[in-house]
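Minutes, project check-in
Item: structure for the 556-residue chain
Input as provided by the requester:
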Amino acid sequence: MGGNNPYAEKPWLALYGAGQPAVIAAEYDDALSLFRAAVARAPAEPALLFFDSAQSYAELDIASNAFAAALADRGFVRGDRLAIYLQNHPAFVVALLGAWKAGGIVVPVNPMNRQRELAALLADCRPAALVCHDDLFEEVVSRLDPAGRSALPEAMYVVPPRAGQSRHDDRVFGVARTCRCDGAQDFLRVVADYAGKRPPEQPPLAADEPAFLVYTSGTTGPPKGAMNTHANICFNAQAYRDWMGLEDGTGVLGIAPLFHITGLVAHVMTAFITASPLVLTYRFEPAVMLAAAREHRPGFTVAAVTALIAMMNHPDATADALASLKTLYSGGAPIPPSTVEQFEQTFRLYIHNIYGLTESSSPTHAVPMGARAPVDPASGALSIGVPIFNAQVWIADEDGQPAPVGKVGEIVSSGPMIVPGYWDKPDETAQAMRPDGFRTGDVGFMDAQGWFYLVDRKKDQINAGGYKIWPREVEDVLYSHPAVREAGVVGVADEYRGETVKAVVSLKPGAAASPEALQAHCKQAMAAYKYPRIVEIVDELPKTPTGKILRRELRG
């Protein structure tokens, strides 16, 4: 980086909490060592809470040993991939650990994927084994076309979707009801049959071996498998623990899907490093999540803002529902300042902002505990925080040089959390993982105090008659309207301006607002060239399973 570099002095260090170090030393090289440390110090404590079913760390260790032994018996070897095509179910965690114990790499698969998406992923990673729900096996796996079926592994295991929800149901680690799916074995029966067995001994997993292949959401192109190494995920699990001051036994509320990097690191790995219970509810439903929080009293979670909005607007939303949470962070999509205020009024709980990507193994930035993120007076953006431990972050201008303080450019990050590349994609790896850092594709800036702000995705900028407009700014204004629940803004073709601004909005339950009223609200709050010329009101906005609004689907 040539010229004067305003990021070299790390002005954000002054914003760290009292006694908070700038650099920490990694305690674990691989995820299995981290998990085994939890088993050693808290064997009888709950590891997984799933409705009224509980499994201890010792039971989870035994069950994952059993599955690892079963994998090995069917030829699974070091470096093989296990695809996990499940909801937030205890079997996901058993399978994950079993794959590592057998020397493998875990490939989490979005359970909303249908035949086309699943076939593309299988063809890319070529798994040696697959675990999925029995209904997904019947509805998706068994209906793959010949090309898709050719990528299916011989070893396939199926899980009843709701097994283990009640002590009166089939137990997760006990004798399960039989799943009859041609060509697949019953996962729970296999775990029961192999109880007490272990996989063959092998050398410890290496820090630089992939622990996960996590496929990017594909919001800007075809999904790519980010190779999250054991060192990557262990470091960021430790970063969560130390940054948030989490103690052993702090319950983790599993709001994010486990196939996503937030679920994998902020939920599973953070629960392991703190020997804490992970609360799972199969899939996100606001009422169910609020009930689980009341019952199990977790102390920590990270969630997409869309999930928090859904919980806040649910009839069961009362302050006592989330009273046990001492630490709440939100990432994955920008948070409107008005939403933070409304959430705090409802739950008496402040949402700390956090920022990261699949390629950064969850966070590179976070708001320090006890601090409140500032709002940029010019753009209205809420700060995403400051770089976490060991993260090196700067803003690149259009020439690839450090942008001046306050100037918008691409966020570039490096550190022990950044993946080495994408699975079997050297060209894409070289383009993103450069010597001076990972090019995130996100646009933002740093203020004079060291706070960072996310403006938008580079590819989402709207050019209306030569004026540059960031959708995020228009969305924040829409969110400040009392009737708006969610908002997405995109550029659409316009004969006169080239592009114009389109807003798609959903309203809060019982609220009313016309497109003209929302237009007028925006027109009053921003420059004339920015307000949306088109406003469409819908029941629900299209989203990824992790809660990001799919802007590309709003353009139609």
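Outcome recorded: The longest strand covers residues 484-494.
No further action items on this chain.
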